[in-house]
């Protein structure tokens, strides 16, 4: 099992920061809301982390993001923090990002020279997983933790509004990821002597 390069760790830290920014992008662009619920760029960044960093490092960066937020840093959506954020209806998405980054990265890693098709499949697999995990968790959280009475169909109907935005970002991610991927690989090769075991 290879160690992480200095560049790898720098990119992982960058994605932790991007997740924090993406969670609260509405703070800088107040119009990005649906029915008063702020939109997020987190699914886009979580998938991109897997595509560019690989399964292990991508999942690690998402895990660090979650742990930093649970520890008290206000980096979740609406600047929430703490373990309680994971019990919110949208808490499942925070957990899903770890799985999504890993799976997306693994799909790319299976190809020696991944093509646009590889990145597109990995990206859409990632967004589908994001919504399956996140929406199912929301359904459970509303009914179990909050004493609500939401049907599984209703949960999906609510999330479909957000899916349109995330599908658009997924397409963008699949288009730009190959260029960034190979640029990062070339840079990583040049820094191969900086490996951290």
Please describe the structure with a list of short key phrases separated by commas or semicolons.
197 residues; mainly alpha; 7 helices; 4 strands; 70% helix
Task: Please give a structural write-up.
- This protein is mostly helical and 197 residues long.
- It has one domain: Arp2/3 complex 21 kDa subunit ARPC3 (Orthogonal Bundle).
- Helix content is 70%, strand content 4%.
Structural class: mainly alpha
| CATH class (first level) name | Mainly Alpha
Query: CATH topology, anyone?
Result: Arp2/3 complex 21 kDa subunit ARPC3
Number of domains: 1
Shape: globular
Rg over CA atoms, rounded to whole Å, is 17 Å
CATH architecture: Orthogonal Bundle
Question: How does the SSE layout of this entry go?
Answer:
Blueprint: E1 4-5, H1 6-23, E2 33-34, E3 37-38, H2 42-53, H3 55-70, H4 84-87, H5 91-109, H6 116-145, H7 152-190, E4 195-196
Antiparallel strand pairs: 1-4, 2-3
Helix pairs in contact: 1-2, 1-3, 2-3, 2-5, 2-6, 2-7, 3-5, 5-6, 6-7
Summarize the structure.
The protein has 197 residues and is mainly alpha-helical. The chain contains seven helices and four strands; from the N terminus they run βαββααααααβ. It has a single domain (4-27, 37-190), classed as Arp2/3 complex 21 kDa subunit ARPC3, CATH 1.10.1760.
């Amino acid at each position: 099992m290879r160690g992480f390069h200095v560049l790898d760790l720098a990119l992982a830290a960058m994605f932790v920061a991007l997740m924090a920014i993406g969670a609260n992008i509405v703070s800088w662009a107040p119009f990005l809301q649906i029915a008063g619920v702020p939109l997020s760029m987190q699914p886009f960044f979580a998938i991109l982390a897997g595509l560019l960093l690989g399964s292990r490092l991508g999942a690690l960066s998402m895990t660090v993001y979650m742990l930093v937020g649970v520890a008290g840093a206000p980096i979740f959506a609406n600047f929430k923090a703490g373990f309680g954020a994971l019990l919110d209806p949208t808490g499942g998405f925070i957990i899903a990002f770890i799985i999504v980054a890993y799976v997306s990265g693994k799909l790319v890693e299976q190809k020696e020279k991944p093509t646009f098709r590889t990145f597109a499949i990995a990206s859409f697999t990632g967004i589908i997983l994001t919504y399956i995990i996140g929406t199912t968790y929301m359904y459970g959280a509303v009914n179990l933790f909050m004493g609500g009475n939401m049907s599984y169909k209703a949960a999906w109907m609510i999330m479909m509004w957000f899916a349109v935005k995330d599908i658009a970002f997924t397409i963008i991610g699949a288009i730009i990821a190959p260029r960034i991927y190979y640029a990062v690989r070339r840079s990583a090769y040049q820094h191969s002597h900086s490996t951290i075991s």
